[in-house]
């Protein structure tokens, strides 16, 4: 006999009034046990003994009750869940008030931490069992009835699922993902609830902007009421109000990211409300203002400011990741999973989404730093041959434009660094909404400076009579811009501090401790050393960097051992002072003659391969014996050139199929697929060779001495 689902099952019991047996539904309020679940309260913030004892006692009651609930049989468990209102209030209170991951308590006692972990586990197991409609083949609820039970009794709703994702997502994501997906599968009405929830989330963004006295694009233009309080900007509001705004933003961003990360199928519903564009607009308006407000308050509560800075940085990252999840689920994932015939609508969605946020420079820059847009465009180019190159080029150009005036090196953004420990900035105007986030220099930047590894060599090659010390002083003064240095030297437009220096000034060779030359100096917290490939002989010691003063006097920078406590060594850049010019010392060593990098050359079609072939031929000629000027057999030269070409292609990974199928079968006997393909390839590529480059090849032979000039 097949087992009936719980929603159809009836049990036999005695009627308490008549004493006769009667059949009642298995899911009935009379089957509920009389048990009162108490409400949850979070651990105390001050860790006072009385409050800690109260928390432990209350949490123990809840944990014991939940353990009892989980031990009930299938029918008893569901009767308690459906008909016990105190249980639902208890679970709701835990979801609302339990500390989040970013709300770490200040050193709670070990007993509090252990009790919180026990309670955390029991609550998760309770919700996990509530989301499961089939526990075994004998204990289950029909899917249709299960969806109605969840929805009609408010066992789950969208706010509860948001809290579940942010509380239990880390470490339990596979289980939580199956749990949320099963709820939406068994009850599709939750999609309608989600669709009604998205405008509420967008309203949260508007509330934050309103609280900060800001107005995003598309905001209401209604006149302000007379009795309405004028909102202050983040820089002017009290510190506690700023704290409330940052906490509100952090909680919203983290919860939103956790939900979409666990349940990415919700992305389509979010995008129905143009969520990507509105998220980028909110980010562009709010984040720079909040950053500037925190940076301005250096003299206030440093501990609180450090916490706010960390939370704001966390919020920035989560908002960018939310945008990426939406882009990936809506556009990129369908492209990866679909055939070539069905990807065009998704490519169009991608181009449209990015075109709508190109004006948000700060957001675009932060997004491109975490998720390079060029990588996504490259994926589209590989997936479709009919990609609109004009639109993609426009998007990439806009991304590049967002980085103008900002160091794009992959340096670490100062996200978790509190303002009190951030690098001191020179006095100047406060950063505005478009200001770039503070960045820490990478080791590469500390070694070669912001101009890159080619500028010192360029100046030395073009102006060989100048001393290396003078060139380095000029580079430092003009922010390592070789072009400005060369122009100002040739036009006699150097700054007065540089004009007074001796132009034949060489680098000063200083001695370290004990009279020995140190291998490197400590600049800005980094050891500056020459790269191994550019160092001298194995026993050659490298001189330490020095500092050139305003009046040409030299003061050796202290070595690592000279710094008290290993502290950082900072130097002023004002008035032509040179801070750590030893960073560029290896750039002035005699190297190969300066040539324009290949990526910056103007390319001619079919030029790249021939140039590389010519370079290889030149290298072969340099290594081989000096040729006499006897004109060799052209057939031998052609065979040799073909052999060199095939060797080059083999090194590059090209596979050459020597079997030509162009000839094919006699007419009327049909041609094979390989023959057809070879004929098409020959027809398409015959313009690149044959008689179309006679002059080029004649010039090439003449330069090789094969044709008398």
From TrEMBL:
Residues 609-622 have a biased composition (Acidic residues). One of its GO terms (biological process) is regulation of DNA-templated transcription. It comes from the Eukaryota. Residues 451-494 form the CUE domain. InterPro entries: ASCC2, ASCC2_CUE, CUE, UBA-like_sf. Residues 527-541, 623-634, 671-686 have a biased composition (Basic and acidic residues). One of its GO terms (molecular function) is ubiquitin binding. Residues 417-456, 509-577, 598-634, 655-709 are annotated as: Disordered. This is Activating signal cointegrator 1 complex subunit 2. It comes from Sarcophilus harrisii.
């Amino acid at each position: 006999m097949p087992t009936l689902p719980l929603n159809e099952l009836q049990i036999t019991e005695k009627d308490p009034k008549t004493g006769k047996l009667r059949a009642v539904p298995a899911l009935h309020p009379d089957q509920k046990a009389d048990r009162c679940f108490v409400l949850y309260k979070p651990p105390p913030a001050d860790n006072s003994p009385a409050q800690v004892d109260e928390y432990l006692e209350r949490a123990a009651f809840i944990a014991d009750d939940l353990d009892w609930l989980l031990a009930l049989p299938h029918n008893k468990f569901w009767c308690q869940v459906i008909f016990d209102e105190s249980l639902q209030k208890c679970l709701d209170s835990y979801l609302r008030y339990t500390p989040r991951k970013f709300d770490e308590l200040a050193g709670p006692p070990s007993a509090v931490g252990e009790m919180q972990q026990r309670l955390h586990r029991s609550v998760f197991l309770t919700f996990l069992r509530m989301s499961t409609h089939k526990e075994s083949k004998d204990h289950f609820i029909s899917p249709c009835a299960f969806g109605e039970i969840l929805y009609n009794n408010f066992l789950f709703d969208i706010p509860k699922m948001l809290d579940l994702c942010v509380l239990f997502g880390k470490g339990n994501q596979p289980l939580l993902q199956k749990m949320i997906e099963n709820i939406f599968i068994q009850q599709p009405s939750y999609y309608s609830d989600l669709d009604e929830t998205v405008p509420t989330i967008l309203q949260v963004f508007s509330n934050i902007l309103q609280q900060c006295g800001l107005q995003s694009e598309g905001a209401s233009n209604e006149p302000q009421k007379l009795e309405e309080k004028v909102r202050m900007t983040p820089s002017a509001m009290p510190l506690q109000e700023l704290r409330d705004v940052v906490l509100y933003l952090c909680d919203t961003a983290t919860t939103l990211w956790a939900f979409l990360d666990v349940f990415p199928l919700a992305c389509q519903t979010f995008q129905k409300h143009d969520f990507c564009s509105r998220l980028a607009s909110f980010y562009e308006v709010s984040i720079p203002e909040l950053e500037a407000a925190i940076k301005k308050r250096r003299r206030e509560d440093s501990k609180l400011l450090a916490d706010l800075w960390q939370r704001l940085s966390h919020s920035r990252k989560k908002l960018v990741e939310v945008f990426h999840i939406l882009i990936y689920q809506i556009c990129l994932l369908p492209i990866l999973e679909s055939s070539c015939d069905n990807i065009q609508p998704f490519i169009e969605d991608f181009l449209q989404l990015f075109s709508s946020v190109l004006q948000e420079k700060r957001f675009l820059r932060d997004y491109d730093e975490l998720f390079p847009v060029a990588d996504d465009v490259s994926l589209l180019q590989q997936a479709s041959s009919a990609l609109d190159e004009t639109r993609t080029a426009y998007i990439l150009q806009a991304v590049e434009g967002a980085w103008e005036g900002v160091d794009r090196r992959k340096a670490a953004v100062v996200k978790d660094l509190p303002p009190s420990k951030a690098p001191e900035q020179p006095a100047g105007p406060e950063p505005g909404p478009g200001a770039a986030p503070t960045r820490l220099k990478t080791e590469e930047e500390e070694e070669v400076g912001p101009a890159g590894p080619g500028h010192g060599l360029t100046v030395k090659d073009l102006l060989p009579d100048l001393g290396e010390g003078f060139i380095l002083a000029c580079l430092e003064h003009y922010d390592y811009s070789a072009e400005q240095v060369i122009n100002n030297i040739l036009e006699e437009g150097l700054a007065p501090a540089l004009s007074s220096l001796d132009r034949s000034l060489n680098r000063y060779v200083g001695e370290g401790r004990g009279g020995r030359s140190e291998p490197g100096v400590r600049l800005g917290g980094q050891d500056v050393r020459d790269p191994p490939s550019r160092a001298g002989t194995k026993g050659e010691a490298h001189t330490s960097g020095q500092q050139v003063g305003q009046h040409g006097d030299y003061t050796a920078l202290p070595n690592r051992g000279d710094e008290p406590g290993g502290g950082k060594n900072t130097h002023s850049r004002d008035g032509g002072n040179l801070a750590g010019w030893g960073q560029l010392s290896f750039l002035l060593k005699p190297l190969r003659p300066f040539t324009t990098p290949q990526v910056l050359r103007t390319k001619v079609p079919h030029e790249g391969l021939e140039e590389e072939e010519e370079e290889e031929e030149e290298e072969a000629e340099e290594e081989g014996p000096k040729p006499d000027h006897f004109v060799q057999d052209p057939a031998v030269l052609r065979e040799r050139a073909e052999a060199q070409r095939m060797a080059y292609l083999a090194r590059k990974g090209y596979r050459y199929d020597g079997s030509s199928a162009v000839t094919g079968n006699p007419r009327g006997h049909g041609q094979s697929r390989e023959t057809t393909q070879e004929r098409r390839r020959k027809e398409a590529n015959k313009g690149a060779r044959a008689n179309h480059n006679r002059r080029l090849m004649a010039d090439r032979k003449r330069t090789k001495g094969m044709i008398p000039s």
